[in-house]
Design goal:
Order of helices and strands of chain B: HHHHHHHHHHHHHHH
Oligomer: heterodimer
CATH topology of the largest domain in chain A: MetI-like fold
Number of helices of chain B: 15
Helix content of chain B: over 70%
Structural class of chain A: mainly alpha
Number of strands of chain B: 0
CATH architecture of the largest domain in chain B: Orthogonal Bundle
Number of domains of chain A: 2
Strand content of chain B: under 5%
CATH class of the largest domain in chain A: Mainly Alpha
Distance between the termini of chain A: 48 Å
Number of domains of chain B: 2
Structural class of chain B: mainly alpha
Number of strands of chain A: 0
Largest interface: A-B, 88 and 99 residues
CATH superfamily of the largest domain in chain B: MetI-like
CATH class of the largest domain in chain B: Mainly Alpha
CATH architecture of the largest domain in chain A: Orthogonal Bundle
Radius of gyration of chain A: 24 Å
Radius of gyration of chain B: 27 Å
Largest sheet of chain B: none
CATH topology of the largest domain in chain B: MetI-like fold
Chain lengths: 304, 313
């Protein structure tokens, strides 16, 4: 009995739980008033996106952007996915979606492998100069990308990777390195040195310690790294537009081309459906991951 | 026996011929980092600075023109507009995101109900891309169907909120959208900062009868200085880079009213075939970042050194 009330108050944290203070006081009105107004401001765009994407064009022209749809239609969603025009061709967002997936999966996996091994080496296997390179890497994270854009075009062209999925993947791996390396280095630095020494005494080497001892201990930080990379790479626009090439444009670039195309009648409902489709993946990652997401963004920021 | 107790005698013979091969696995593992640090961050930046002194048009050429590109850059009205805009955008987003982010964190820190729900709501825009952010706000601020029309339909026929087609106001539309996307991050960092402060402070100030707002202003905020500095640096680095948001929301328009430096660089490098100009503009961006970054780096580094001395001494 007692158990179930505790559980239900945890689940809904509704007004059933015990509360020492009076609920309606000036203090509470100010606090909740401020928070609710702020929450409305933050929720408003999401709400507008959803209701607009479910209306027909005549209703959009007649009504206002805040009113809920009188007749719900999913046609804009189908059109955004399948047939919306980007100015050049009319194949919808699905092309961009698959391009983004093909960029996202290898970039995330490769960058996390490299950064985790690197962070491990920087924590336990320091060599002369390792800290110097790491410092350069961290400072590099603050250099505006614009400074490096063109030389990277040349490098990719020399490697034969310009205007290809592999090229843009490589760029994501490179620019993901500072934050991920920092993340893993800080995490491994928190693991007791004794553990490492014990493994050394038992005869384990660089890779064996990493694979059999460090990896199983550090799964949460791998999830954090995945969250950082998935949202970061999916939301990228600049690298996609420069290095991927017209055929391989990621979803964000295609979305922008669909919405900001100058030709034809503007279909705001299709535009909003397309926008929601593009934002869907990072939003799902965010809502599923919860506190780990906060940890991810705070990881690079607070420690430093 | 002697050879076991005194292995040092044998060392010179068994020692690998080259120091480079000691700890080899770690060095191999660090190769991508070393290559990125040297080739991309140092090499590419140096390349760009070098070629910003040439008259390169569509392809890089070693024809040096001194600081001509920079002179032309600062004479271009579009660049002047870009610098002015980034200043407005920078100051507004710094001030408002710090104030709003801090206030949200303080209100969330009052042991309230639904804290998780509120925090989730404030932070979710940060998961969205600048493109998505820009396009949503473009729709909300649409002059024919957006907020303006809704409020006019309510009876306030003279109400005007026409940010996107107004030359003087377009940059503020970008500020509003940017704040919507980024304040959640500041809130999250500030909340972490508030939680890291010793709760004894609050007991002490309550005993002394100091009102809460004074405790925040004169005790808590000074104690949170490192959090503020880090947040400031993060926001500032983000401000200099702002690009996608402008492309999605206004595309620099109307006219050149909401152009920003990052867009200038992109357009001159990849659309206008004027590489030298683009590189000079990017070098100016780099210099701006260094002006922000170096004092911060010195401060952090200096502080650590000072702390070390305290511990050592």
């Amino acid at each position: 009995m007692g158990n179930s009330t505790v559980l239900s108050s945890l689940d809904r944290s509704g007004p059933s739980g015990p509360k020492p203070r009076r609920l309606i006081s000036t203090r509470n009105i100010v606090i909740y008033g401020f928070l609710i107004v702020a929450a409305l401001y933050y929720l408003l765009p999401l709400y507008v996106m959803v209701v607009t994407s479910l209306k027909g064009m005549p209703e959009i022209r007649m009504g206002n952007i805040f009113s809920p749809p009188m007749e719900i239609t999913f046609a804009p969603w189908v059109k955004a996915w399948d047939t919306a025009c980007t100015g050049l061709y009319c194949e919808g967002l699905k092309v961009g979606f698959w391009n983004s997936i093909q960029i996202l999966v290898p970039s995330t996996i490769i960058s996390i492998i490299i950064a985790s091994v690197n962070g491990y080496a920087l924590s336990f296997w320091r060599f002369k100069g390792s800290e110097v390179f790491f410092t350069i890497l961290l400072f590099g994270a603050f250099i505006p990308y614009q400074v490096m854009l063109y030389p990277i075009v040349i490098i990719l062209r020399e490697l034969g990777l310009f205007s290809s999925l592999a090229g843009v993947t490589l760029v994501h791996v490179i620019f993901g390195m500072p934050i991920l390396t920092l993340l893993f280095r800080n995490y491994f630095a928190g693991i007791p040195m004794e553990l490492f020494k014990a493994a050394r005494v038992d005869g384990a080497g660089f890779w064996r310690i990493f694979l059999q001892i460090m990896l199983p201990m550090s799964l949460p930080i791998f999830v954090v790294a995945m969250i950082i990379q998935i949202t970061g790479i999916w939301n990228d626009f600049l690298f996609g537009v420069i290095y991927a090439g017209t055929k391989n444009f990621p979803m964000t670039v295609q979305l922008n081309n669909i919405v900001n195309t100058t030709q034809g009648v503007k279909e705001y409902n299709v535009n909003m459906a397309a926008t929601l489709l593009t934002g869907a993946l990072p939003l799902v990652v965010y809502f599923v991951s919860g506190k780990l997401f906060v940890r991810g963004i705070a990881a690079g920021a607070v420690k430093g | 026996m002697a050879s076991i107790t005194n292995p040092d005698n044998r060392r010179p013979v068994a020692k690998p011929p080259n120091k480079l091969f000691r700890n080899l696995s770690a060095k191999v593992a660090a190769l991508p980092m070393i290559a990125t640090a040297l080739v991309i961050f140092v090499g590419c930046s140096a390349w760009s600075i070098f070629y910003s002194f040439t008259s390169s048009k569509s392809l890089p050429r070693e024809k040096f023109v001194g600081i001509d590109q920079y002179v032309r850059l600062f004479k271009t009205s579009r660049w002047q507009e870009s610098m002015e805009n980034i200043l407005i955008y920078g100051v507004c987003s710094l001030v408002f995101s710090l104030i709003v982010g801090f206030l949200l964190a303080v209100f969330l820190d009052q042991k309230i109900r639904f804290e998780n729900t509120f925090r989730t709501i404030f932070l979710y825009p940060f998961a969205l891309s600048f493109i998505v952010t820009g396009l949503v706000w473009q729709w909300i601020l649409n002059q024919n169907f957006g907020i303006q029309k809704v409020i006019q339909d309510l009876g306030f026929t003279s109400f005007e909120l026409d940010l996107l087609s107004n030359k003087d106001m377009a940059i503020y539309a970008i500020v509003i959208a940017g704040l919507w996307q980024g304040t959640g991050l500041v809130m999250a960092l500030m909340l972490a900062g508030l939680r890291s402060i010793d709760q004894e402070i609050w007991k002490a100030s309550r005993v002394d009868g100091i009102p809460a707002w004074r405790t925040y202003l004169f005790i808590v905020i000074p104690m949170m200085r490192p959090v503020f500095v880090t947040t400031l640096v993060l926001i500032a680095a983000g401000i200099v880079k702002v690009y996608d948001l402008v492309v999605a929301l206004t595309d620099g328009g109307p006219g050149i009213a909401s152009e920003v430096p990052a867009k200038y660089v992109y357009d001159y490098m990849f659309a206008n075939n004027n590489l030298g100009q683009g590189l000079a503009a990017s070098t100016v961006m780099l210099t701006t970042v260094l002006i922000i970054l170096i004092p911060w780096g010195l401060m952090e580094f200096g502080e650590k050194k000072a702390k070390k001395q305290v511990i050592d001494g």
